[in-house]
Amino acid sequence: MRYTIVIVTHNMQQAPRVSDQTAFFYMGDLVEVGPTEQIFTTPREQRAEDYVTGKFE
Amino acid sequence: MPTHTDKAYEAELKDLRDKLLEMGGLVERAISSSVRSITERDSAIAEDVKERDREINRMEVAVDGACRRILALRQPAASDLRFITTALKIVTDLERMGDIAVNVAERAIDLNKAPALGPMHDLSRLAEMSERQLGRALDAFVTGNVTEAEEVMHGDDVLDALYLKLFNDLLGMMMEDSRNIRRATSLMFAAKYLERFGDHATNLAEMVVYMVRGTDVRHPKSRETAG
């Protein structure tokens, strides 16, 4: 039996520590999804980039 | 362009960028002065370059410290993380470039003790090109201009070609008259230092491409091919 665990968090240290895949949602919309390493080193979407670098107004 | 919500973090990143640029400016001045001490036969300039290298070394330590602090306290991600890793890499290149300027200055002091050996226009040109390579790499770093960084990477071939020409000319002078050997060897070293200086500018440019795009463009021929 295989499991998928979904963790919803705003903690930017916890998210990369616990996950293989990361998805960034904003106001109910999926902005970007991909391997955790990619989301936290080279995100493609500007809004994802701004969020993980702490540029959130 | 949005800025960091944490203004102190924003200021730390800006301070790091400013430190690197200041250091780059010092290195630019060092290399142009060291070559001028050969072309103008002024050893006082060379002594000054040696003295000022301490400031470049101090800045390397300061930049390293600032990077470590940000890594430990801010856990940077995405473009910030790429900026910090780039800073850590290019600060080593810049420090080494400062040492190269000192090496050229040492050759200058040696050369200035004997009569000049022929015209120096090729050495001056090589110096101008190397310095320009650094200037453009720093410019690409500040503006995040990948096109300019790539031009720096390609510009290294022209620099290498001029170095090779200079090398052969100096070799010719040595074969013509063995009394030229000592001075021509010093000039050969100076030329080699300048060529190496250009290589470090290329390293900087490659890191800028990584910082902006997140793709590593170094050592394309050493990559294992997929499949």
Notes on the protein architecture:
The complex is a heterodimer of chains A (57) and B (227). Chain A has a two-stranded antiparallel sheet. Chain A has one domain (1-57). The longest helix of chain A is centred in the C-terminal third of the chain and has 7 residues, at 46-52. The model of chain A has no long low-confidence stretch (mean pLDDT 93). Helices cover 32% and strands 23% of the residues of chain A. In chain A, strand 1 (21-26) and strand 2 form a beta hairpin. Chain A has helices at 14-18, 36-41, 46-52; strands at residues 21-26, 29-35. Chain B has one domain: Phosphate transport system protein phou homolog 2, domain 2 (Methane Monooxygenase Hydroxylase, Chain G, domain 1, Up-down Bundle). Chain B is elongated. At the A-B interface, helix 3 of A face helix 3 of B.
Quick description:
The complex is a heterodimer of chains A (57) and B (227). Chain A has 57 residues and is of the alpha+beta class. Chain A has helices at 14-18, 36-41, 46-52; strands spanning 21-26, 29-35.
What is the topological layout?
The complex is a heterodimer of chains A (57) and B (227).
Chain A: H1 14-18, E1 21-26, E2 29-35, H2 36-41, H3 46-52
Antiparallel strand pairs in A: 1-2
Chain B: H1 7-39, H2 43-74, H3 78-111, H4 121-143, H5 146-176, H6 181-213
How can the largest sheet of chain A be summarized? 2 strands, antiparallel
- Major sheet description of chain B: none
Order of helices and strands of chain B: HHHHHH
Query: What is the count of DSSP helices of chain B, taking H or I runs of 4+ residues?
Result: 6
CATH architecture of chain B: Up-down Bundle
Overall pLDDT level of chain A:
93
- Looking at this structure, what is the CATH superfamily of chain B? Phosphate transport system protein phou homolog 2, domain 2
Global shape of chain A: globular
Radius of gyration of chain B: 20 Å
Helix/strand structural class of chain A: alpha+beta
DSSP strand count of chain B: 0
Q: Which percent range fits the helix content of chain B? A: over 70%
Roughly how many Å apart are the termini of chain B?
Answer: 40 Å
Question: How far is the first residue's CA from the last residue's CA of chain A?
Answer: 42 Å
Q: What's the alpha carbon Rg of chain A, rounded to whole Å?
A: 11 Å
* Structure classification of chain B: mainly alpha
